Amino acid sequence: MPQNPAPLSQESGRHALLLSADVREALAERRPLVALESTIIAHGLPRPRNLQVAQELEEITRKAGAVPATVAVLDGRAHVGLTAAQLERVAGDPAVRKLGHRDLAPALALGASGATTVSATAFLAARAGLRVFATGGLGGVHREWTQTQDESADLRLLARTGITVVCAGVKSILDVPATLQRLETLGVGVLGYGTEHFPGFYLRSSGEPVDWTVRTPQEVADVMRAREELGGPPAALIVAHPVAEEEQLDPDVHDRVLAGALAACRERGVTGQAVTPFLLEYLMRETGGASLEANLAAVRGNVELAARIAVAASR
Questions:
Q1: Separation of alpha carbons 161 and 270, rounded Å
Q2: Percent of the chain scoring above 90 in pLDDT
Q3: Which of these is catalytic: 37, 58, 151, 304?
Q4: Cβ contact 225:131 at 8 Å
Q5: Closest Cα to residue 114, out of 86, 85, 146, 72?
Q6: Which residues contact 129 (CB under 8 A, 6 or more apart)?
Q7: In Å, how far are 31, 55, 246, 311 from 41, measured between CA atoms?
Q8: What is the pLDDT of residue 12?
């Protein structure tokens, strides 16, 4: 039983999804596809490296046997799969906004352009009929939640979107135990890929255990198939894939710098949506860019694994 509504066609209205030629052909021929978010391109990396990374991630997907489908909104139209020129535009235009799921309707209605976050990418990719999505790290429950009530929109969206998300866990600046508890409450499945511990984004392990471990793309595909055959409420399946040990951020450096970042955040009164970018920028600056390199290593590994899972699931 399918877990998402039927894919939107290009002819279903002014605000229908626009699928690239490669994505349309792959869907028609039931070939493997991997959705890629665009926020990392527009807002996560300095120019011109952001375009180089975007092109690299699409090439990694192709080499692993799948078709890449980078997702973005351009001039009020939601795109699943970008041309080379559109990818360059997302990477080079400073006016491109950051769009979560809640921002999609205003962006489409008002003709805006924006890069999609995890929540927006997962939603649009699932609506197009894609089954696998690769990203870096998910959002989650923020530290001091009891005071701030701050929780990423990623969690609720993933609780009602049947897509498999390959990630390196949740950002280590968050409350990881509380996030895992929230995912359990929302019915979002979590698999550790080759690990018995939930990854810590920049680190191989957050120290928190996972209930289920898989070790091959085929095992992930088998879980996907079992979920679809069972039916029931749609929810995402998270495949938590740790960064390679030699590419993780030094754990001692991570803990020391993160403690300083959290203290600076409190001292400066940074709150709400400004917290995450402040902490990530602090980490990048104080680690001399090492946190960014660990992030990119995780993303590359996640994209390759997602493509292998998509290939296994398409058989």
A1: 31
A2: 82
A3: 37
A4: no
A5: 72
A6: 4, 7, 27
A7: 25, 10, 25, 25
A8: 53
Instruction: Provide the 8-state DSSP code for 274.
Output: G
The sign of the dihedral angle between the CA atoms of 287, 141, 145, 41 is positive
20-66 pLDDT tens trace = 999 999 999 999 999 999 999 999 888 999 999 999 999 999 999 99
**Cα–Cα distance measured from residue 153 to residue 135, given in angstroms and rounded to the nearest whole number:** 15
Q: What is the mean pLDDT of residues 267-291?
A: 86
pLDDT tens readout for residues 214-260: 999 999 999 999 999 999 889 999 999 999 999 999 999 999 999 99
Distance CA 277, CA 281 (A): 6
Asked if 206 and 180 touch (Cβ cutoff 8 Å), the reply is no
Backbone angles phi, psi at 116, to 5 degrees: -95, 135
Residue with tokens 């280590």: 172
Band of residue 5 on the pLDDT scale cut at 50, 70, 90: very low
Is residue 165 within 8 Å of 195, Cβ to Cβ? Answer: no
Instruction: Read off φ and ψ for residue 166, nearest 5 degrees.
Output: -95, 120
- What's the pLDDT at 144? 65
Q: Residue 174 corresponds to which tokens in the numbers above? A: 């968050």
- The CA distance from 171 to 140, in Å, is 8
37 in active site: yes
Distance CA 201, CA 122 (A): 19
CB of 215 within 8 A of CB of 263? no
Q: Determine whether 98 is an active site residue.
A: no
- Cα separation, 242 vs 299, in Å, equals 10
Average of per-residue pLDDT across 63-71: 98
Residue pair 98/115 in contact by the 8 Å Cβ criterion: yes
DSSP string, 75-138: TTEEEES--HHHHHHHHH-TT-EEE-GGGHHHHHHHT--EEE-HHHHHHHHHHHT--EEE-S-B
Give the residue, 277 or 165, on which the prediction is more confident: 165
The single residue of 58, 151, 171, 304 carrying the catalytic annotation is 171
